[in-house]
Design goal:
eight-stranded parallel beta sheet, 14 strands
Length: 379
């Protein structure tokens, strides 16, 4: 029997409508109780925000969603943008309305969110083996019978565990899965094509699972547009295609009406679009999972994307949409300035945040030589 935890019991003085009215939900707004739909009526400017504040430029986001959709249509690929960064119902709807075939999630919780906001095809770009998450997958399948959630598998042990937990949870139909090919020393994924075949064979023989495609992530390879970087990406994608052909030759796609080949993060979707599509007797769908296109970014990696402004693509270029505004709170010694944003305000991937503008009152300062070299908790 679980014990009662006093501090988790509802406080009658702070419950229900009264509590919701008093609780400040939006941290950067001058008045955190203003309805988000009414913010534009307040006459607020950047100087009125409680810094740090992350802002999103609506015109850039809308431009990016439309541009990426046109690019996918021109090159004949489907898009399932990764939602892990924004996790926003509004941005999901924008991406679907702009032509997204589906969306990509990194966890069962994210997949559950996407199903709830109307996404019918969800690539779960991760393995799922722990019982709680597998049970949640089965529950999701019962709750949304029209939704396909497609996780990946990269080991026969993972296949066996996934299948067993699905059966115990009463999974109502075979779960569509993709086998993942990885690279030695990299992240998840079978390390050899021979092992990939063995994993796919195990999936095909399992009544709880249905093999629908092959998945890989080339983004772990060195990033660049030089010949050596592109050759490495193309070689990996050629391995994916060859593996898919071999699985088809063995009849392992007999339970699906189309075969998915998905890779293509935000830097190399054009390399996936350029692969030769094999004739398997059923349609082969190339699906790119570019998650950063909707907001784009500044920095070295972003300049390598096929739709970056630097690429000078005939369709146009993506626009950076995210800006983090902060206040300089201390200049304790020459050459050092401390701003009031930290790791929780500016999570970053491969590079530190980029300084775009410095204001002093109405004056705009030159940002040459100004860079972020450390991010701490609140500085």
């Amino acid at each position: 029997m679980s014990r009662s935890i006093p501090w988790m019991e509802p406080d009658p003085d702070t419950s229900d409508a009264k509590f919701r009215e008093a609780y400040p939900r939006f941290r950067s707004l001058p008045d955190p109780h203003v309805d988000p739909q009414r913010v534009g009526e307040q006459g607020w400017h950047r100087r009125d925000l409680l810094l740090p504040a992350l802002t999103l430029r609506a015109d850039a986001v809308e431009h990016n969603a439309r541009l990426h959709a046109r690019w996918c249509e021109q090159y004949g690929v489907l898009q399932a943008p990764h939602a892990k960064t924004h996790m926003s119902p509004e941005l999901v709807r924008l991406q679907l309305d702009s032509g997204a075939w589906g969306l990509t999630a990194a966890s069962v919780h994210q997949a559950r969110f996407l199903a709830a906001v109307g996404v019918s095809r969800i690539i779960l770009a991760h393995e799922v083996v722990d019982r709680a998450n597998v049970v949640a997958l089965a529950r999701l399948a019962r709750q949304y019978p029209q939704v396909d959630v497609m996780p990946i598998v990269d080991s026969r042990a993972g296949v066996e565990i996934l299948s067993r937990h699905l059966a115990e949870a009463g999974m109502p139909r075979p779960l569509p899965v993709m086998v993942e090919l990885g690279v030695p020393g990299g992240r998840t994924g079978a390390r050899t094509e021979a092992e990939l075949v063995r994993i796919a064979t195990a999936v095909h023989a399992d009544p709880m699972l249905r093999l629908v495609g092959v998945e890989g992530f080339e983004g772990i390879l060195p990033v660049g547009r030089d010949a050596a970087s592109l050759a490495g990406v193309d070689e990996f994608l050629a391995r994916l295609v060859a593996a898919m052909v071999e699985l088809d030759r063995r009849g392992l796609f007999s339970q699906t009406t189309e075969v998915l080949l998905t890779a293509g993060g935000s830097v190399y979707p054009d390399r996936l679009a350029a692969v030769d599509r094999p004739d398997l007797g059923v349609p082969v769908r190339l699906v790119v999972r570019s998650g950063a296109t909707i907001t784009h970014d500044h920095g070295p990696s972003s300049r390598c994307a096929p739709l970056s402004p630097e690429a000078d693509h005939p369709l146009g270029g993506l626009k950076p949409a995210l800006e983090l505004w902060a206040a300089v709170v201390s200049t304790p010694e020459p050459g050092i300035a401390l701003a009031n944003f930290g790791k929780r305000d500016a999570p970053y991937d491969s590079h530190m945040p980029v300084v775009l503008q410095v204001l002093r009152g109405a004056e705009t300062l030159d940002v040459a030589g100004i860079s972020v070299d450390r991010v701490n908790d609140q500085h």
